[in-house]
Amino acid sequence: LIAVAEQTKNTLIQEGADEEDIAVVNLGVREKFEIRKDYSSREDKIGYLGDFRPRKRVGRLLEEFNNSDSGYELLIGGTGGSEQEKLKKRYSGSNRIEFQGRIPEDDLVDWYNSLKAFIFPTELEGFGLPVLEATACGTPVFVYEDANISEEVKEFCVEVNNVQEIEGKLDGFKDAELEGKSEEVKRKFDWDKTVEETISVYNESA
What is the C-alpha to C-alpha distance for residues 145 and 117, in angstroms, rounded to an integer? Predict the structure, then answer.
């Protein structure tokens, strides 16, 4: 068995899998995810990318943002999940919330680079690849304090109690700091390394 994080491995063990039969191979960030726009020159936009399943807590994100007096715009990217149509119907009328649907693969890097912040409101996540992709693009990532995300990924996030706390933290980020985090996440979660480790696991089990 291949687990994408230690958290996933522990879950498999709890379900009865033998620890010796589980290899942890983190997902990797592809080389194309990079900083293309200086953080200081970005517009006041906060983004989310993913689906609308209940555990993603997009409803909580939208409600908090809609009830705030934020001067930022919230971009919601992604499709799917049982709450999609309900949430779109409820919040599409807001002039500060934009549902963008699926972000084309060719536009994804520029999309991350357009944001002042990326928020990942999920309650439970096996890994959290969008966190690493956003970080690689020089975008600060925020999660709720009670988010159950793999520690390998969560260390690159800023924890908040609610959406209202985000805006007050954004002035503290500098280009040099975000460039350093981008380099670190791409070094630690190199896609080529993921491929090599996965092939190695298959070869060892053959």
Answer: 16
End-to-end CA distance of the chain: 13
CA 164 – CA 159 distance, rounded (Å): 12
Are the CB atoms for 157 and 120 separated by under 8 Å?
yes
Distance (Å, whole) CA 125 – CA 153: 10
Cα 177 to Cα 175: distance, rounded to the nearest angstrom: 6
Q: Which residue carries 């944001």 as its tokens?
A: 115
Counting residues of the chain whose pLDDT is more than 90, the rounded percentage is: 84
**Amino acid identity, position 131:** V
d(CA 173, CA 21): 42
CA dist 126 and 151 (Å) reads 10
72 by DSSP, 3-state: which? coil
* pTM score: 0.92
Classify the C-alpha dihedral 102-54-93-115 as positive or negative: negative
**Cβ atoms < 10 Å from Cβ of 176:** 8
The three-class DSSP label of residue 80 is coil
pLDDT digits (tens, 9 = 90+) for 72-87: 999 999 999 999 999 9
